[in-house]
Amino acid sequence: MYKITEKAALNPTVTKMVIEAPLIAKKAKPGQFIIVRPFEDSERIPLTVAGYDREKGTVDIIFQIVGGTTMELNSLEVGQSVHDFVGPLGRATEVEGLKKVCVVGGGVGCAIALPIARELHEQGCVVHSVVGFRSKDLLILEDEFRACSDELRVMTDDGSYGTKGVVTAALDELVAAGNQYDLVITIGPLIMMKFVVKTCQKHGLKSIVSMNPIMIDGTGMCGGCRLTVGGETKFACVDGPDFDGDLVDFDEAMARGTMYRPFEAKAREKACN
Ligand code: FES
Fold it and tell me: What is the ipTM of this complex?
């Protein structure tokens, strides 16, 4: 059992939890993920490591309350425990040797982007961050991004905070201002990542995307998280979650993502009753 030591609502639908898990805290790196099962009979869900404290032996997770299992997880309070917390899984984001990077996060994907931006900043890389949200009330982690970014652009769809517009408009502007990046790292909704990759291609920039499909075992056995990358089948849990943006078949990934909606609706119903 893994004790919850802190819990905070970052916005009405996104929660941060700090979990006591010393062995995972010792090894975790940005980009890796955890498989969580709130209760013994819950489904297993992957959540990316949003931070860790190696001395305290804790791991941060940030999740959006969207389905049955995240509702169950959110029902737990400080002092209670999650039943399973397995990881770190997946490959860490490769950040070594990068000198100037643009990190583009969308919505709750910003929770995954933040530890990567931090790691880049700590190794002396120039970090420009672009974060996008639907509106001001969904904004998360602004101060944390500001602390590890040489430049931060906040975008909202409705213009209620920062600049009105999509993240790709900010990326276009940064490039037009003369910024050249070794790499653009993007994490967020599939449709956003697809268009960030297209924008990078237009500017001749390399991109890495963090894929977060449905996962079951998290060990490459079940095939649930498969994707087509460069014409080959890859498993996000063991080959990723990061992939070369130019090679990912986003349309297929989006179609697969919708296959599970009826099951998710049932799970949500069960969690609500
Ligand atoms: Fe089962 Fe990746 S989650 S193969």
Answer: 0.98
